[in-house]
Q: What sequence folds into this?
C-alpha cells in the first residue's frame, strides 16, 4: 500500500471538496470552489498521511502482539506436553503404591525405614 495519493484519487477528493464547498456555502462559481479545493488539498494530504501512519502503527503493534502471543502459547504448549509426559508414569506409580498398600506393605519389615527416607 503506497503512502502517496494517486492522481485519480486526488482528483476525486478535490471534486468532493469542491462539491461540499459548493453545497455548504451556496457557492455559485464552480471554478472558485475548485480553486478553494486546490488550496485545501495539501492539508488534506497531511491529514490523510497522518491518519494512515497511525493506522499502520496500530496494525504493526497488533501484529507484534500476535507474534508475542504465539510465542507464549508455543511455550505453554511445550510445558503442557512435558507435564503430560510426566503424568503417565506418576499415575502408574500411584496405582502401584495403592496396590502395595492394599496388600499390606505397610506391615512389612523395613517399611518404616524406607518411608522415612
A:
Amino acid at each position: 500500500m503506497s503512502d502517496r495519493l494517486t492522481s485519480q484519487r486526488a482528483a476525486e477528493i478535490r471534486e468532493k471538496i469542491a462539491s461540499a464547498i459548493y453545497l455548504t456555502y451556496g457557492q455559485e462559481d464552480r471554478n472558485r470552489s475548485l480553486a478553494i479545493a486546490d488550496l485545501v488539498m495539501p492539508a488534506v494530504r497531511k491529514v490523510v498521511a497522518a491518519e494512515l501512519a497511525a493506522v499502520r502503527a496500530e496494525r504493526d503493534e497488533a501484529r507484534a502482539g500476535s507474534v508475542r502471543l504465539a510465542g507464549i502459547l508455543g511455550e505453554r504448549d511445550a510445558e503442557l506436553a512435558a507435564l503430560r509426559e510426566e503424568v503417565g508414569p506418576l499415575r502408574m506409580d500411584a496405582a502401584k503404591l495403592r496396590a502395595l498398600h492394599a496388600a499390606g506393605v505397610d506391615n512389612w519389615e523395613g517399611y518404616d525405614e524406607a518411608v522415612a527416607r
